[in-house]
Specification:
18 strands; alpha/beta; Peripla_BP_I; globular; signal; Substrate-binding domain-containing protein; Rossmann fold; 12 helices
């Protein structure tokens, strides 16, 4: 009987220990640290706290798709930020890998870094779900996992993002207002979607289509997939013009330089265009707005990686953090653009213009970013 009692006690202790090891961060009351930078998504956002540990820390960036300029600039930005004096002394090691669009490959890379003993892993998820296993593993090993940009459909990890649904709605509202100002109440609207299968593309598209569907005009939506890539976007927009003729407006998630080039090549009249924050897109708006290119540029900044890295380090230091961190949308329309301020005539067209987050103390210069390379680190 005594042996049975001892065995029962041991099993109970093991069960409690196992449960604790999978607990992950504690859910605590807010507010969190530095709310000007790490702003909660809304009033219902819960807060996390990990047990603080001594630095410097080992951090990995696990990117997925790398086949467009945004992802390339994001990787360069992460490397440039790691050299910033604000953070350099807090990093013992930074590894960067890109795994492509295959979810199992990305999950495998994350697991590998967890098993190697990295303190934090920052990732752009290739899918909004399917990460339960690595979340549990990260919690068990006390690793801070921070998805950003393409985030997960879960509240079990700390995440950093801009409001993609609001971004899509803002694009569409701008387009509708510009068309009404021209007296246009019907026609075809071209939607240029991003990389299929992730939360950013999904949420932006929902926002765009919700606004246009609610409008009283007679609109026909035509959708093409540009993968947020200039070259791909230029081709699919050119094909759409060849098949459908003239569009009343374009709502593009990215690859905005490709939209502009396709319109130019086809001799398509300038129309209201919603797009991302590519430098060339903003140049084109500034140069052609009086001729009808009424544009809005909202930047999903590659610099989000720096905010995610800063959040991961803050969590490792034991600070209280929001589970979902909201980064404000940097909006510029044809009425706001100013050379040297929010676009640069002397920088490449494919440079993404928004890389400053003053409340976070993140301000990474264009030259510092462009001096890096996008290759994986060994």
């Amino acid at each position: 009987m005594k042996n049975m009692l001892r065995l029962g006690a041991a099993l109970t202790a093991l069960s409690i220990g196992a449960g604790a090891s999978f607990a992950g961060p504690a859910v605590v009351d807010g507010p969190g640290v530095n709310p000007e930078c790490f702003a909660p998504w809304d009033e219902d956002t819960k807060h996390f706290q990990w047990e603080g540990r001594e630095g410097p820390y080992r951090v990995a960036i696990v990117n997925g798709f790398v086949g467009n300029t945004w992802r390339i600039q994001m990787i360069k930005t992460a490397k440039a930020y790691a050299e910033d004096p604000e953070i350099a002394d807090k990093l013992a090691d930074l590894k960067v890998v890109s795994t492509g669009t295959d979810a199992p490959a990305q999950l495998g890379a994350i697991e590998d870094f967890i098993n190697q003993g990295y303190d934090a892993i920052v990732t752009i998820a290739v899918s909004p779900d399917g990460f339960d296993r690595v979340i549990r593993l990260a919690d068990r090993e006390d690793v801070v996992l921070v998805p950003f940009d393409n985030v997960l459909d879960t509240d079990a990890v700390m995440q950093v993002n801009e409001d993609q649904l609001t971004m899509g709605r803002t694009w569409a509202q701008f387009v509708m207002e510009e068309l009404k100002a021209k007296g246009v109440t019907s026609g075809k609207i071209l939607e240029v979607r991003g990389l299929p299968g992730n939360s950013v593309d999904r949420d932006r598209s929902i926002g765009i289509n919700d606004v246009i569907a609610a409008d009283s005009g007679d609109w026909e939506m035509v959708s093409v997939v540009g993968n947020w890539d200039d070259g791909t976007t230029q081709k699919v927009v050119a094909d759409a013009i060849a098949v459908h003729g003239e569009f009343a407006a374009v709502a593009g998630q990215g690859g905005s330089n490709g939209v502009i080039q396709a319109l130019k090549d086809a001799g398509h009249p300038w129309v209201p265009v919603a797009g991302e924050s590519e430098n060339g897109f903003r140049k084109a708006i500034a140069e052609n707005s009086e001729d009808g290119l009424k544009g809005i540029s909202i930047g999903q900044s590659p610099g989000l990686v720096a905010v995610a890295m800063k959040a991961a380090i803050s969590a490792l230091e034991g600070n209280v953090m929001p589970q979902l961190i909201s980064v404000p949308l940097p909006v510029a329309t044809y009425q706001d653009l100013e050379d040297g301020k929010n676009y640069w005539s002397d920088l490449p067209d494919n440079f993404f213009t928004v890389n400053e987050f003053p409340p976070c103390g993140v301000n990474i210069s264009g030259p510092a970013i462009m001096s890096q390379d996008e290759s994986d680190t060994n």
